[in-house]
Amino acid sequence: MWKQILGKLPRKSQKSDQDSPRNLNSGPSTSSPGSGRANAASPAAKRASAAVFPACAIAGIEPLLAFKDVPSSERMNLFISKLSLCCVVFDFTDPAKNIQEKELKRATLLELLEFVSQNPPKFSEPAISASCKMCSINLFRVFPPNYRSSNTGSGENDNDDEPTFDPAWSHLQIVYDFLLKLVTSTSLEAKVAKKYINHSFILRIIDLFDSEDPRERDCLKGILHRIYGKFMVHRPFIRKCVSNVFYRFVFETEKHNGIAELLEIFGSVITGFALPLKEEHKIFLSRALIPLHKPKSLGVYFQQLSYCVSQFIEKEPKLASCVIKGLLKYWPITNSQKEVMFLGEVEEILEVINMAEFQKVMVPLFQRLGRCINSYHFQVAERALFLWNNDQVLNLIAHNRQAILPIVFPALEANAHTHWNQAVLNLTLNVRKMLSEIDDALVLDCISNYQEEQECKNLAVKKRKEIWDRLENAASLQPIARNTAVLVTH
Predict the structure, then answer these.
(1) Is the peptide bond before 276 cis (omega within 30 degrees of 0)?
(2) What is d(CA 212, CA 165) in angstroms, rounded to the nearest whole number?
(3) Among candidates 435, 438, 340, which has minimal Cα distance to 427?
(4) Total domains in the fold of the chain
């Protein structure tokens, strides 16, 4: 189709304008002031475009004309014509294919982007429809078989850490910029545009967040955020769709490239939530955000997730205990890197939690922190002990020392006697000293109780060993018979 248009472009050997089609990129032809369609294309050029586009789509305007070459009254029709021209999608897996057509389309896309950026008159409904159609055709594209592997060059053996860059990006970037400018334009009326930027359109935008191309995800982030801001009627639907993405990621696939970007959008969205928070928003926190701590790939989006959670707590401090319970539920047992991240998030929450909410969770929380203090992974133990360097956390501990110290002191004593890492040992001794300064009598009681517990444990071990010794001795006195198991001492 593009070849038909390119074939109609003028050659250098043209004798006159009457013998060949006019140059579609040249200035306009003159017409009478009262014609109502000045600067229209020549009949030959119209036939070239008509071979590709329906007459109703181009509205009688040759799409390769420049916007400056038509009167203001015709520019919206030319805008629609150029949009129709850009609905042709090319295969970029072969760089040598359709070179001229690709360049012409790129130039046309840049014209459209410039037109939208200049705050044109109010977009008509046909213009909005054509804009959404062009974006849909170019962005919601169906990849041919082996498209991804043919562009990475290594097929199934690709390194998961290496992103896949779309070869069509030279066109896609302009389309994304066009869509962003369109959505943010004051010339676009939301009450008209919502008919075309509808649930189906938004759902496909959200689906694109799984793109392996980080440039594409960054563009989508800006577009979805602007759509959320401009189309209030679509906000519940967007929240529902993003929640569903999180649910599938956490409980089904654990594979999605755009979790960080979606969370970044919601970091801003949560900031704008009105108080008191709706029940729907609290459900989003408990069912969508907190379970996002579960996947192994938490590190990829942890910063954005932590920010979203902190925004909820800032909005409604009573949610702090709910978040800590959720963290304890999904606490990583065998992943030390995640455990360090969890400890960092716990500290951030403890810095803003009120006393009533803290008391609801302090017992299970410090039972977990005690295990972290005893961790053989020195980074986990260090991070847990660093909590005592935070004045706000220390204040919470001091006010509730009667409940907390008996929980954590056995862990501190065990570290002081057996931990292999010198840095952890030094931190442990510092914390013990700090607690002694807060309440020396309680610390002495804790030490006494710890020693009694150790004596009881040692006595239990001694008794168990004596029992095994008697059993081994009794077994050794029994005669050996065929098919009889014999207890062998070591």
Answers:
(1) yes
(2) 7
(3) 435
(4) 2
